# Entry
Amino acid sequence: MFKEEQIRVIKGLINHLDNGTNVDAGGQVRNPVSSYTDETIAADEWQEFFLGHGQLLGLSGDLPEPGSFLTNNDLGKPILCTRDQAGKFHAFLNVCTHRGTIVESAPRGKKKVFSCPFHAWSFSHEGDLVSVPREEQFGPVDKSCHGLTALPAEEKYGMLFVHPSPDGTLDVDDLLGELAPELANWNLEQFIAQGDTTYTHAMNWKLAIDTFGETYHFNTLHKNSLAESFYGNCQMYDTYQRNHRMALCMRNIDTLRDQPESEWNVLQAALPVYYLFPNIQLILSGAGPTLVRVYPNKTDPNNSLSQINFYLHPMIKDMEKNAENQEMFEQIENRMQGFADVIDKEDYAAAALGHKGAHSGAIEYFTFGRNEPALHHYHNTYRDALGLPPLERISN
# Structure
């Protein structure tokens, strides 16, 4: 985040604290509970937002060196992402062109070639078919026509984007819009992958996204966890076409009041949370980013999963190798995992109860308050993409 913007965000948070205010969406709106439960809407979302849309699958640190790979099965298609010997990022359908077997089953690693477990047809990091065992017995194979099916893939601003359809189009700058320069300024390519976790819950995927859309709930749901480090119901909020940035107010912001603005660092005062349409939360902290990717069940609006990936700044990662700093490193690592556990055991647990409520017949709408502008914003982007009318405003 550029220095001028850091100062504006910190000043805005201090102003909210001093005046007892918060961001204001200008009114309340209501969202039909059917948007979370309707199977037709779910099918349209799967096609429009996932199969038909570029996807952020990780950060550059997930492919740390030439020969690295990762696999992904969250989009209903097996995907293989690679970094070739020249350092270039590629993505393919992870399907052998001989008999359709999944070529690589490991979640990530490093290999010279990818060998199908069925008949050992082997493929390079560029997707080329490089070896057919016993070809003299099998018969001649035109290797130029039997490579892995390539997917549109682009590595930009330290992020790995893939379109899951071979004939899809991918333009990262178009996806990020006005937010691109700010994300580039974070130098995301420097961060090192430090593990991941997966959470599944009986709830619609948008309910998981909703938990990241406001801090109104902090003093209640997180009273013994996040509320110890953050001021609830206080944030800064900015939109960038379909995307947005929230800045959650840390209690540590008070230590900046007597410092000159030239010394202010937004990561000492706030937790920037970027929403990237349609399903991404990118959270920046002093230790490093946390990437949350939320996916629906393609056939069932009542279930979803979240993939959470952790990354560390190289200076912090180096602590792991130093005995003197080992304890500090473990504390940072435990805080990152603890944050993910709050998402699972508090946010998602509450959202899953909301999903049960949506099916109860007790209410027809969920209400989004004036102090919940993110919920207004991305639900309207969803509806616009599906050709639905905007959320109904019920007050000013």
